[in-house]
């Protein structure tokens, strides 16, 4: 079976991909260099596999490869085991979702996790399932939360020291964000860590510690339905033995309902929504927090992946590119702010970031309070980035070789306004309206190579449609990324020059991987347009409504005889 040591070495071992992120640090970097800048043009398809049915919605998964089998999840909470040599199906599992599930942003699933003889994945009805790797038989199935209250699940689980660690989704329904750890063998809960102040964590079935201080940064009872969904899963920094989870938007979106009126210092910050939390994997206790958007009011979820790396000065850091448009470097020991830069162009909501990492707000760019207007609709503001973010869920990659981060971003804005809202269990809890708009005629998507030490953009690749897929980089000097237009592309990691592309037949919102088999290097990515853009993208959704849906995984290889060819 797969051990903790195997997971710890996943970033270095090139013959398998056992974890989300190609290593629990989520660098999405492969030391493989069989495919390089010169020969990448000879990359050809090896096989493709269809997920079948009418269920062709967004395919956001990262595949895994282990012991001759590819494991890949698909929309509507399905999981496939495929012979990695031939592309033939070995088994499939369909979670058969109940009526009435409430995912905010398409029926996506971002991937699975392998440990022991099991594979684990979460389903849209907020359950976590353990399946036998060889047969696909269910070993156990546990409830993360009640889907009827608006909870769902879309992320890849994280495995650390025999624990299956999951977050939750539902920030648009007034749920409470939480991280849970289960015994991988039995599925029994070991600890829970709610992320909103005032809620009680548990350890082995007993109350552990309260998160924060009751009513310190939330007015009245608003903490009870405060959001902060931990919907993108976490990373693990082995050097400091810390699990890092981001937390989503506070609920409701209307930030006037979460405002101060509270004399205790950090009034109305709404901790720990729109934050990053460093957790102790053994107990779920919070070691540190860093809030990117206090009293968030534009739907800037703070869930983005936190990636441990070593910077140009040899210091151990974390990097994270927030939905709010700023790229942050944090200290690895305590999560303290080190430096930041805007990574999209026309940020309106903040003038910048102060020396403590706190945004310097443009208060006039906060959507207005309905109570200061006609009581029904507050003042409309045009804000950028749009609520879908300078960067949404799609993960960046880091190359220790170039030292750069490759950040998939989008340049767009929105009209946004607030409305009154009261909480009703299982109903949308926004108190806001919005229309997303492009900022430039020729592009929305922008892949940026960012130097995390000098804080400069080294190169940029502009894409017409918004980017919605993950990025991967390799020691061969390459960056791989898919586009909604359907291409998987390879770029020169130093210059951004496009070196190869292949049309997969539907938009790519998946996450590429690479591995080595019989001395040849392979690349795989899922294809199938979807996710939040077609559902929530306003004028941008109209602009890209010609894109076709799909549902497949594509596998490419560099044939041995073409590895040295010009
Ligand atoms: O607050 C939440 O619980 C939550 C969950 C999810 C999700 O689980 O997919 C998304 C969002 N928020 C969100 O704000 C968002 O823009 C988004 C985009 C996507 C996607 O897969 O395209 N999911 C989500
Ligand atoms: Ca959200």
Task: Write a brief caption for the model.
Disulfide bonds join 104-105. With 566 residues, the protein is mostly beta strands.
Question: What's the count of strands?
Answer: 40
From the alpha carbons, calculate the radius of gyration and give it in angstroms. 22 Å
Supply the CATH architecture. 8 Propeller
The CATH topology is what? Methanol Dehydrogenase, Chain A
**Could you name the CATH homologous superfamily?**
Quinoprotein alcohol dehydrogenase-like superfamily
Describe the structure.
By secondary structure, the chain is an all-beta fold. It has a single domain (4-29, 58-471, 530-535), classed as 8 Propeller (Methanol Dehydrogenase, Chain A). The protein contains three helices and 40 strands. The strands form ten sheets. The protein has a six-stranded antiparallel sheet with strand order 11-12-13-14-15-16, with no helix packed on it. Strand 34 (471-474) and strand 35 form a beta hairpin. It is globular, with a radius of gyration of 22 Å. Bound molecules: pyrroloquinoline quinone and calcium ion. The site of calcium ion has 6 residues, from loops. Ca(2+) binds at residues 172, 249, 299. It is found in: Periplasm. Its main location: periplasm. Belongs to the bacterial PQQ dehydrogenase family. It comes from Oceanicella actignis.
